[in-house]
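Quick entry, no commentary yet.
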Amino acid sequence: MDFSALIASYRPPSAVEEDILECLHRGQSHFKQPLRQLADHIIHRQSVEFIKEFIEEEDLFGCLNEPIHKGLRLLHYAVYQDEMGIMLLLLDSDADPNVMDDLGFTPVHICAEKGYIHLIEILMSYGARICFTEIYPNDQSFGDPPRATAADEPLRMAIRHCEHETARFLLEHGANCNAMYYLGQEINLVNPLDLASMELLLLYGADANARDLQGLTPLMKACRISQAVEAVHLLISYGADVNAKALEDEKTSLHYAVLTGNLEIVQILVFNGAKVSFPLERTRPPPLYYAVLRGNVEILDFLLDSGADVNAVSTVVGSALHLALTERIANQVEIVETLLRRGANPNAITQSDGRPCLKPPIGEYLQCCEHPRLEIIKLLLKHGARIVFDIQKNHDFGILKVIHRIHLGLNPEVMTLLVEASETFNIPFIEQSRHLSEYHKEILYKKALQPFSLLQAARIQLRRTLGWGPSVPETVRTLGIPRCLERYVLFEE
């Protein structure tokens, strides 16, 4: 979840809004302090002449910068009500154009929020600030990083309320497009779908690679939204780094795009230089793995076309084929078939410190899947998977320790196929196994205690010679043997 954008978009009612609504609801009273009465007159839109006479009658010229409610001054009320005449009267009477309420909002902040460019111009002519990122000698410092107000920048107020012309005016007159907040820079707080605000900031020099509190760049955040195709184009055109990595989990924009499932964004990134392959580390899967997890065949094919290594191996999860077989993913059969067709090794051995740390793909599949599918087993065999009923300590391809996971009542055909395909049996281990049921042992003994037929032995030897890969079915079909024998060799019968 994009917490920075979520928090940045939230804004409670301002003090001036709250006070004006309360005043309009309760009506005017004559038993208040003069400043309070004067504020109420401004709220009720009394004329400039009336306001001037009231100030003179009550002798308030020396009190125009005094707080009324939650730090609000008369100038705040005049600006909020868009009373330019009253605002000029107050400014000409030495009202401070940079006065802040208790939350740090100045009259310029209110104008930015409301889109009152005409009032901002007047306030600036009287010395009002529009940028608070620089700390002057007489300023009080707020926040981290420090700024001259506890409130957001006027530019942020304009952008948040989609006052783009006001934002442009502020940027033209010195607003800092790279203002820093606790959650990140100005551009980090913009929703990627708010293209107008993003383009405006970039046009005036915003850093396209700025990182937010979570270590994400604007491009990463855009890639997490499937509708943000235009934002992705825009950010890249302004120099966004397509290979920048998130600080916490080291994902790139391509990782996020694959997780989002938008092929167009994935293509844009790759065509602009995004890397599809990375050195595999323990907790840093490549984008290809996320395409597998999402069950997205189109993106998977595209990444493989773009150079992703189908046989890259992680010591934690194994190869992409391991992942496809061990996770509950959509389109599992299509994903497995795609990987095998594109050259995935059905006999991949994952090693750590020179020893196997994972079973071969078919072994991990049987270990993790309660109800293995016959069509997936056949796909693996068709592309050269070898079946060895031994322990992995004796043979890298050994899967004997997981055979007990096959439910003979629900998946008898899977057990039958694997027994038929096995190259060898470790009879002593079968005898000693505490995991294998008597029914499992009976099936294994029946096959293990009789010699292979000449046909079976020939199939085993031929498959060893052919190896593995998408070329296996093609090679078998060029041998000139009868179709029935082709199907026999490929376990298609």
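second:
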Amino acid sequence: MSCGNPQSDVKDPGAETPERRTKPKNKICLKCKTEAPVIQVRHALYCRNCFIFTTSGKFLKWFLATFKTTDIYPAFYIGVSGGPSSRYLLHVLQTQLTPRKGKGNFIRPGAAEKLVVIYVNHANVVPGAQNLRKDIENMIKGYPNAEIIEVDVDSAWKDSQSSISAQLSGLPGQPPSGTTSSSTADLFDSTLATSSLESHLSLLTHHLILREARKHADGLVGKDKELPLFLATSATRVTIKLLSSMSRGRGWSLGSGEVQPESSQFGMRIYQPLLNTSSKEIAYFNKYVVPDDSKPVVNRTFSTFAPPKSSIDRLTEELVVSLERGFPSTVSTVAKTGNKISFAGEAKEGERLCTLCGWPARAKANDWKNGIAITKLDDKVESTESDQPSLADILCYGCYTNLTDSRARSEVNYALPGWTNEYAESQKLTEESMHKDTIKELLRGLKDIKVINNDPLIKKAAISGLSSKNELAVIIFEKSAFNESNFNQFDHLIDNHVMIQQNDIYHVLTSSSTPTPNDQKVTVIYPATQKHLDKHSKSEVSLFRETPEVFNTIVKPYIDGLPLKETKWISSLVSGEAENETYYYKGNSFVIAADYKWDKQDLNTLYLQVVVKDLSLKCLRDLRSSHILLLKSMREEVGNVLKTNWDLDLSQVKLAVHYQPTYYVFHVHVVSVNYTSFPGLNVGQAHLLDDIIEMLSFSGDIFEKMTLTYHLSKLHALYKLLKPDTASVNTHDDSGKLQN
């Protein structure tokens, strides 16, 4: 049908195209050229014996090219459903397990000591499906050293409590106390589309086979050695999977192993040797070779006896089968093309992985979905920055789409399978390693280096530079505070010194100490923006008196116009899930975390931040009498944190609010009273929290009405707005690229 009006009288010219049918020119077997043919494979005709020889020989050729004849594995693992493809693979694979005579007098040993069959039971989730354990036992009853591992789909949640951890808490999901049966029922909710149900079942089956194989292999060879796992995916099935996966949004990861003949995942070496064998060939081979008492059994699925449009897989299957009927090389062509697909994402060792399926994932699946999805105008909702981490941040687009099926629900309300936490932890380590490598590469290749600040009083300097990608970087150097324990070895503190001045009893020397642990702290901001460059550059400072009128006409529009991505890291911080933050308190209204400027060792430089979760509360001007309870609660919890962690009290810290602040989400600075060189407590910037509470108790809207005095650097964006006659300079945009 055309993509135009389905009610139109204009016929689709493609609908009248007759089906192409190929007729073989000869009526004898292509191989022996004597017997009458019984089957046509693409454009070739085979008799029964030649067909069996050719089909089994195709597998043997692949096997000998993949495995060395001298290698003997402790076990071969094979995922079996009981269907035709897995029955065929069982038969041809077991032939490689028994010693047999080869050319000459050489007897080739078996390639594996045992065959481990893994069967995932779908009977408890698919209506009408049967447990095929007995049928599979009949299939392998004559095989030497074969065993069966049966696992139910429910077991995907047997570790579900561990999956709700720091990595995944805060996501919409079922509490850890949910039972495996309730988790299964929720995941296979009948309100979900059949396509989503099929995708869920396929994903769970794949991972259960992987995990059961790995668990068994650990007992044989330990955790560091890969063993072969065979999956019976035929050429017809991989063609359907290739096309349906792309329609589901899984095109990003197809080149990583889903449709490849060989790949690695979860410590197993996965082989799919039937990718060049069609379902038709497999069906005829089973008919001619497999004994009647161990024939394959086709179990029910979600789309059994359903019309083609019931699901994406079912519709794709109908398309592929009909094309193959008229164009016999369709399946082989698509399957071979799929084998050549390579992953075009990030470097393999640094790729981002989906925590559900384990395959490479494109970042920000939700943004990608919103960019390509077709939605009704009246269904569109203005996007807002959430203070909770999104499922889209940890899932690939395909998994995210299936879990948020638009026909059923807008968010996930069930527990994720147990392995998601393991993948999330692994992903965290991978990303941390990537960040370290990125910074090392940046520091080695930094160019156009400029000293933008050097303050000898506080022993702090800053430089700027450009990376190889011409992205801005700002690097801050600070001398570390003295560690009092070092003075216990005074003779090592001054290994060499030079007298530079002497006056009466005063002697001034320059010296170097050995060793010098933590001699300086280096903070790298990359990629940086013009705002970061301005903040850390030395410049002239001016004092401003901001009246309510100036705030409403100049300052407030400036604050409201700041891009949301400038506070993106704050959303991560207040969610309680920022990876590299040290939290001391997580509440419903605010969090308390260590500031990155504090080394978390010297209490004389203690520096914490208390940040509210209400992102609409931006600065001092927004405070009203209704916020007094919040401010008092913040002060109280700071006291509890000080007492619990360091046996300090509120008299030993200063609690202050900056105006103008560095970022516009209301926060309170907690700084040790002994940190006298801290520049953020100067008059003209800091307002003590106790004074703020007192002022609000006298007048609830005092900060809306009063004139506030503060100082600004000449490089601050507000400076240019408050003094519009200032000269323009070269700047960097939000991505760090140089602008003129």
